Amino acid sequence: MGANDRVCYHNMASKDDYGRYGHAEVVSLTIPKSSFEAFCEIYFNLFNKRGDRPDQLGDRGGEYRNLIGIPNKDPELIKIAEAVSSGINNGAVAVDAKSGVGSDEDKRAVTYVYDNGSKGKFPAYQAEFYHQFHDGFAPGENYPDSYNNIKNNLQALGILQDTKCPPI
Predict the structure, then answer these.
(1) How far apart, in whole angstroms, are the C-alpha atoms of residue 20 and residue 99?
(2) I want to staple 151 with a disulfide (CB 3.0 to 4.6 A). Which of 62, 87, 100, 132 is the partner?
(3) Are 134 and 148 in contact (CB under 8 A)?
(4) Is 88 inside any structural domain?
(5) What's 142-159 look like in SS3?
(6) Ranges of H-type helices in the chain
(7) Is residue 5 part of a domain?
(8) Which domain holds residue 155?
(9) DSSP one-letter code for 101
(10) How confident is the model over 35-90, as pLDDT tens digits?
(11) How many domains, in total, are found in the chain?
(12) CA 167 – CA 10 distance, rounded (Å)
């Protein structure tokens, strides 16, 4: 953790770089238990039969490892994730609930489970404003304004704050 509990994207000043602290990029979601299986079906269907996601081709390293945060590593939810994963693409992606200790390596075909509960060891940190709701990087991977403008709406509501991180 950096200055003032800051976690920043890679930047020219090399300040509070999330990669050096063992963090990974995540999307923070709140999913009711009753919808967790449906979430897992969508998530594990992102992977192909070799355990790759198409959006990972240029992103390698611990910052880009696959992970799911489950509050208190709830065994019931882990079992759901394992069952769903094993039924998609012949179980191409394993669910690893034993590791998930921070700074885990980027392994193809593995999704780590982390404890991200309210008192969990691995809470999510907000990324810089420019890193929120942006277009993809592949040619033609442009999202509609309704998506791109979510960050402006969340900032206006005070939900997204300035992280005070150095610019990239």
Answers:
(1) 19
(2) 132
(3) yes
(4) yes
(5) CCCHHHHCHHHHHHHCCC
(6) 36-44, 75-86, 145-148, 150-156
(7) no
(8) 129-168
(9) S
(10) 999 999 999 999 999 998 877 767 788 999 999 999 999 999 999 999 999 999 99
(11) 2
(12) 9
Residues 29 and 52 in one domain: yes
In whole angstroms, give the CA distance from residue 67 to residue 28: 11
Same domain for 46 and 99:
yes
* Same-domain status, 46 and 82: yes
Domain shared by 31 and 106, yes or no: yes
Q: Looking at the structure, do residues 158 and 78 belong to the same domain, yes or no?
A: no
Residue 30 lies in a domain: yes
Q: Could you read off the pLDDT of 22-36 as tens digits, one per residue?
A: 999 999 999 999 999
In tens, the pLDDT along 112-157 reads 999 987 777 788 899 999 889 999 877 888 999 999 999 999 999 9
3-state secondary structure of 112: strand
The single-letter code of the amino acid at 1 is M
φ, ψ at 135 (rounded to 5°): -65, 160
pLDDT single digits (tens) 105-124: 998 899 999 998 777 778 88
Q: What are phi and psi of 91, to 5 degrees?
A: 70, 35
Whether 41 and 108 share a structural domain: yes
Largest CA distance in the chain: 45
Residues of the chain with pLDDT > 70, as a percent, come to 97
